[in-house]
UniProtKB/TrEMBL annotation, chain A:
Residues 141-191 form the DNA replication complex GINS protein PSF1 C-terminal domain. Residues 58-125 form the GINS subunit domain. InterPro entries: GINS_A, GINS_bundle-like_dom_sf, GINS_Psf1, PSF1_C. The keyword RNA-binding does not apply. It is found in: Nucleus. PANTHER family: DNA REPLICATION COMPLEX GINS PROTEIN PSF1, PARTNER OF SLD5. Pfam families: PSF1_C (PF24997), Sld5 (PF05916). This is DNA replication complex GINS protein PSF1. Component of the GINS complex. GO terms for cellular component: GINS complex. The lineage of its organism: Eukaryota, Metazoa, Ecdysozoa, Arthropoda, Hexapoda. Belongs to the GINS1/PSF1 family. It comes from Acyrthosiphon pisum. It comes from the Eukaryota.
UniProtKB/TrEMBL annotation, chain B:
Residues 177-203 are annotated as: Disordered. GO terms for cellular component: CMG complex; GINS complex. Residues 67-163 form the GINS subunit domain. It is found in: Nucleus. Belongs to the GINS2/PSF2 family. One of its GO terms (biological process) is DNA replication. Pfam families: PSF2_N (PF25005), Sld5 (PF05916). The lineage of its organism: Eukaryota, Metazoa, Ecdysozoa, Arthropoda, Hexapoda. CDD domains: GINS_A_psf2 (cd11712), GINS_B_Psf2 (cd21694). This is DNA replication complex GINS protein PSF2. The keyword RNA-binding does not apply. It comes from the Eukaryota. It comes from Acyrthosiphon pisum.
TrEMBL record, chain C:
InterPro entries: GINS_bundle-like_dom_sf (IPR036224), GINS_Psf3 (IPR010492), GINS_Psf3_sf (IPR038437), PSF3_N (IPR055221). Keywords: DNA replication, Nucleus. Component of the GINS complex. This is DNA replication complex GINS protein PSF3.
Length: 193, 203, 200
């Protein structure tokens, strides 16, 4: 029946967890696009061959199917973009590799552009260096915080210019702004007070 | 929806009394006002966040606010039980202030555990009241409610459910567009009386 | 993340609700649609008209051309309406129909003699179940069995209420100021660990 394929695409999205992005289903999308083209051709054919006694129901049904296919395809793309946008705010500009390899070329381009736009907007806030909106999403309690490294993360250049070597299970005192992104990425953990 | 940490941040601006252990003759000028002078042993008013910072550096003792005493809280609790409506509390941030002071300065506050229990009882009682009034509001299909004297944290506890629920109800009441023509949607949202549902909180 | 409980153009729930099947029969012959050929009405006997199940969005098309009549799906017929009126709280709504409210809402907007009754039942059912949904969301421990009985609209409300309740509980037990690993990364790691365990 019409639109079955596109519903399969949306079910794929529904089944996946909201914090992941399943592989971009190129074949599925092409299949739906060609279904739309066929429907369109059929409508034109009906209009031409049955001019005297137009089968209105048949034409309406095909038109509705085209519209529905379009809505579902757009929803498929829109939902994925919403998730991608959320990831930018949650984990930053560097996506986990298995998310990245599930994206289409246009999605990767979109993501890069989104990151650029966001950064250039944040630069314009305030008088000088701008404001990182992804930081301190909850009110900070102190300027510095004690953290423990969960992995051998290697070199970290501090805001003072000093270089710190992060070793697994060692504790450090870091500025909150420097610690927060690393905590969110799971490299460090905050030592509970 | 606000995160509890954000409401706590608002609570940190409330004024509280401390007894400093140091001297600082001039005022300290802050965005929220000027505070001082600090004289060892003499109580003065400062915002809670200042108090907590000084207390963590062990340069002051915090004086618990008047209401933060077991007998006072018990009175409040009885009053709340007796009243059909929400009673007015001495502060809009009773839960957060108790939480912050008892975490940082438990030694300064006598009967800390009993205070914690009494505050929790008060909170539970008021939240139960709030939830049943929300339920009543929805059941009776009311369009307006006045919930005086609720605190921000209490309001926040129903904030995520309430607008969603009213939206869902409105969806069921009014005509909505199920077809795939986006152009239709502007014509199809015929307003029904229920779609003008408004909810006002007078605080 | 964009959240809107009301159905909108990009809402998967609304799309899926319009995909739910309805049993119907044709009162007029529909030409030039292959998969309907064997379901066209027989002239003399209306009772014996072959029935077919079509998704709601197709029913809408044929209703516009007055070519079709449909039966109210089971979940919305008189028997179930009575059950819901008696005590909506005991019904496993998800099992009855995943998109109970949205599909019902769409149905009630179609031309059918029971449409008004359906609409009334939807509103009353939602109101009757509201307190239960709210209470379940507040008691966080092991509420999966409860969650499973909610329709997809109730689930949205439930999930929001539960996230807020979790924030509050964490605040009350651990205080604020703690920075946490992003939930996405945490889940990602859990999945990786699970995958590698399965591979071993």
């Amino acid at each position: 029946m019409y639109c079955d394929k596109v519903i399969e695409l949306l079910k794929e999205l529904e089944r996946s967890r909201e914090d992941t992005i399943p592989p971009y289903n190129n074949d599925g999308i092409n299949h739906v696009l060609s279904e739309m083209k066929t429907l369109d051709a059929e409508i034109i054919d009906l209009l031409r061959t049955q001019k005297d006694n137009l089968p209105l129901d048949a034409i309406r049904l095909r038109r509705a199917a085209i519209e529905r296919n379009k809505r579902c395809l757009l929803t498929y793309i829109w939902t994925r973009i919403q998730r991608l946008k959320e990831m930018r705010w949650e984990i930053g500009a560097i996506l986990p590799s298995d998310v990245r390899q599930n994206l289409s070329q246009s999605e990767i381009e979109w993501f890069n552009n989104y990151c650029k736009t966001l950064v250039s907007y944040m630069k314009t806030i305030g008088p000088d260096t701008g404001l990182n909106l992804t930081q301190d999403t909850k009110p900070p309690k102190s300027l510095y915080t004690e953290v423990r490294s969960l992995v051998d993360a290697g070199k970290l250049e501090l805001e003072s210019g000093e270089v710190l070597i992060l070793r697994k299970n060692s504790q450090y005192m870091l500025s909150r702004s420097q610690a927060e992104p690393l905590i969110r990425q799971g490299v460090l953990e905050q030592v509970r007070q | 929806m606000m995160h509890p940490a954000e409401i706590e941040y608002m609570a940190e601006n409330e004024i509280i009394q401390i007894v400093p252990t140091f001297n600082h003759a001039s005022h300290v000028h802050l965005i929220c006002g000027s505070y001082g002078p600090f004289r060892a042993g003499l109580p003065l008013n400062v915002p809670i966040w200042v108090a907590l910072n000084l207390r963590q550096k062990k340069t002051c003792r915090i004086l618990a606010p008047d209401w933060m005493a077991v007998d006072k809280l018990q009175e409040r609790l009885e009053e709340e039980k007796a009243s059909k409506f929400f009673t007015q509390l001495p502060t809009n941030f009773y839960l957060e202030i108790t939480q912050m002071l008892l975490t940082v300065a438990s030694e300064d506050i006598p009967q800390g555990n009993d205070i914690k229990t009494a505050v929790k009882d008060l909170w539970d009682l008021r939240i139960a009241k709030l939830r049943s009034s929300v339920d009543l509001f929805v059941k009776e299909g009311r369009v307006q409610a006045s919930l005086n004297h609720l605190t921000p944290m209490e309001i926040n506890s129903v904030r995520p459910i309430f607008p969603d629920t009213l939206d869902a109800l409105m969806t069921l009441h009014e005509h909505i567009n199920s077809s795939d023509d986006r152009e239709d949607s502007s014509q199809s949202s015929v307003a029904t009386p229920s779609s003008s549902t408004s909810f006002s909180l007078s605080l | 993340m964009y959240r809107n409980i009301k159905p909108h153009y990009f809402s998967i729930d609304a799309i899926m609700a319009a995909q739910e099947k309805i049993q119907c029969s044709f009162i007029k012959k529909v030409e030039c649609v292959d998969f309907l050929d064997s379901f066209n009405p027989e002239k003399d006997d209306e009772e014996s008209d072959p029935k077919i199940e079509l998704p709601l969005w197709m029913i809408q098309v044929f209703l516009a051309g007055k070519s079709i009549q449909f039966d109210m799906p089971k979940a919305y017929n008189e028997i179930y309406r009575d059950v819901l009126t008696a005590d909506a709280n005991v019904v496993d709504l998800f099992k009855l129909c995943k998109h109970f409210y949205l599909f019902g809402k769409f149905l009630s907007q179609l031309e059918h003699r029971e449409a008004y009754e359906v609409r009334r039942t939807l509103i009353q059912t939602f109101i009757d179940r509201f307190k239960q949904t709210m209470d379940w969301a507040q008691n966080i421990d092991d509420n999966l069995p409860c969650f499973n009985r909610l329709d997809c609209l109730e689930r949205l409300i439930f999930n929001d209420a539960r996230v807020a309740q979790q924030h509050l509980n964490t605040y009350l037990t651990e205080g604020s100021g703690q920075m946490e690993i992003a939930a996405m990364i945490l889940n990602y790691r859990k999945r990786k660990m699970h995958e590698s365990r399965v591979l071993e």
